[in-house]
Amino acid sequence: MAFAIFVLQLVIYILLFPLYLLNFLGLWNRICKKWFPVFLSKFTVTYNQQMASKKRELFGNLQEFAGPSGTLSLLELGCGTGANFKFYPPECRVTCMDPNPNFEKYLVKSIAENRHLHYERFVVGVGEDMRQVADGSMDAVVCTLVLCSVKSQEQILREVRRVLRPGGAFYFMEHVAAEQSTWNYFWQQVLDPTWHLVFDGCSLTRESWKALEQAGFSKLRLQHLQAPLSWVLEIPGSFGIHILLQTHTVLPRPQHLAQNLAPPQHSSPSRGGTCPSTQWNLSTQAFTRP
Ligand SMILES: C[S@@+](CC[C@H](N)C(=O)[O-])C[C@H]1O[C@@H](n2cnc3c(N)ncnc32)[C@H](O)[C@@H]1O
């Protein structure tokens, strides 16, 4: 299997030789930082359409975390083009952070299209170092399709806990490694090096649930599911793969959690089968203690 992965990776290297050459010459990173926002602004339209029900489910209870004034202060980490803005509740105060300044022009457009929000500011920086955001200043932090690209998930989650107020919530939706010994995992491994280069550091094979389980949230609710995306990459003669294989979400908060947050729960996610309904496995939630 390892040999087959190596050979297929070699074929991709050869086919994409100009790209690897640009990278070797140190030119690709600058191009990628400009290209990626353009790509994402187009990709987001389709992605948001197909993931709309999941995003509505994910963000449906955001307003419950608003402070005493009724206003929700939210930090969107790795905000990209502002793809999640339309799912936020009215009057939500949004602070955006992203290391790539080229996203700002797309953010401005999203802000103009989402007048129900109060846009606070755009911070250029990485989630591993959010010193520009004060301790305990946020009711909610949102992170979608970001943990796949970061240097240190552990450090980011430490920073998320720092900026969240006691009782605040962290919302995430990430694509992760498929179950090992599946064809999906095989293709993830084949594509990963090139994917990483083309999509600005994104990795297909990260097991992000492990860092989330160890981050020390007082409650973690995490699900594995097959993303309801229709675009399938057909590999001639054999099978198709869904590139976005599994997604973690925080579920709407059950009523009993409104009063109390139990001691930390860390469960290992068992991985689901092929039917989406059997892939909703688990169980815990991401909140800081009130
Ligand atoms: C695939 S895009 C997702 C954008 C947006 N969250 C969405 O769901 O459409 C990944 C984003 O994470 C950002 N990013 C990469 N590394 C990061 C880091 N260390 N800290 C914060 N954001 C990061 C990228 O610049 C990019 O905007």
Automatic annotation (TrEMBL):
Polar residues bias spans: 265-290
Gene Ontology annotations for the cellular component aspect, listed alphabetically: endoplasmic reticulum; lipid droplet
Residues that span the membrane, as ranges: 6-28
Region described as Disordered: 259-290
Gene3D superfamilies: Vaccinia Virus protein VP39
Pfam families documented for this protein: Methyltransf_11
Domain Methyltransferase type, first and last residues per copy: 75-172
SUPFAM superfamilies in the record: S-adenosyl-L-methionine-dependent methyltransferases (SSF53335)
The protein, known as: Thiol methyltransferase 1A
Native source organism of the sequence: Cavia porcellus (Guinea pig)
